[in-house]
Amino acid sequence: MKFSIVTISFNQAQFLERTIVSVLEQGYKDLDYIIVDPGSTDGSREIIERYRSHFSHVLLEPDQGAADGLNKGFALATGEVMGFLNSDDTLLPGTLSEAAQFLREHPRVDVVSGDCDVTDERDHVLRESYSDRYSLRRYVYGVGILIQPSTFFRAAAYRAAGGFNVHNRVAWDGELFADMARTGARFARSGRRWSCYRLHGTSITGTGKLDALMKTYHARMFERVMGRPRKRADLLPALAYRVLKYLETPRALQQRVLRGPVYRRVLTPQVKGQ
Fold first, then answer.
1. pLDDT per residue over 241-266, tens digit each?
2. Assuming Cys at both sites, which of 22, 63, 152, 182 could form a disulfide with 68, CB separation 3.0 to 4.6 Å?
3. What angle do CA 5, 131, 12 make, to 5 degrees?
């Protein structure tokens, strides 16, 4: 089973080499690794050049943003299964082999998601985080969240969904998964930790700098899936889904109680490294 992994890189030289090495050290033989960098000026391109022989393709051209860069990368992909890894995240050892085994054993599954360690810029583990059981309805009520670097999907599901929305600048991964569901993709969780998702002072999640755009995005997706705007009465099903989430994954509740919400980790440096 051949995997295609795309990494989008832009001015994250501090983390980029760790990302690349985490993919190469998978030791997965049938791997198509593609990197896209639209114009880094911080030394990232020098790192890419050092590893050039390990990439199937290196795209060094301007793009319209991360979603556009990912579309360009996946246009060159030849694998049966795809995944994408941001240049500040890493794969845990054995991830690709485990994902391949899961998909071989579950041929009707199109998208499989694992869990992750949330880390800081120094690779200290802050907490664990878990992919939710996925459906469109769950997603628009806020509890259909998939751990993006721990998610892999069949190439046919990606192409049926039409790729990433290049106009989405805040949640291109979430919209892709929703589009896959809308075109019939079947989702599953592996129950395995497959990646390290990094929060730091310049990450979108870590800073909350795009909160207003995220609010607009979620309103758009709710109306698209439900066929109407969100109402005050939707607070009740949203709460019910959240309770169900924690009943299904008690460890997620434990992490929430002990470590707090993922979103606030980078805003509370005194608890880093716990």
1. 999 999 999 999 999 999 888 765 44
2. 63
3. 45
Regarding pTM above 0.85, the answer is yes
Q: What is the pLDDT of residues 30-76, one digit of tens each?
A: 999 999 999 999 999 999 999 999 999 999 999 999 999 999 999 99
Q: What is the dihedral of CA 24, 163, 129, 233, to 10 degrees?
A: 180
127 close to 255: Cβ distance less than 8 angstroms? yes
The count of structural domains within the chain is: 1
Calpha distance 83→158 (Å, rounded):
10
Q: Supply the DSSP symbol for 202.
A: T
Name the residue type at position 140: V
**Type of residue at 238:** A
Full 3-state SS string of 95-154: HHHHHHHHHHHCCCCCEEEEEEEEECCCCCEEEEECCCCCCHHHHHCCCCCCCHHHEEEE
Rounded CA gap, 10 and 75, in Å?
19
What's the domain range around 226? 3-271
- Of the chain, the percentage scoring pLDDT greater than 90 comes to 89
CB 187 within 8 Å of CB 113: yes
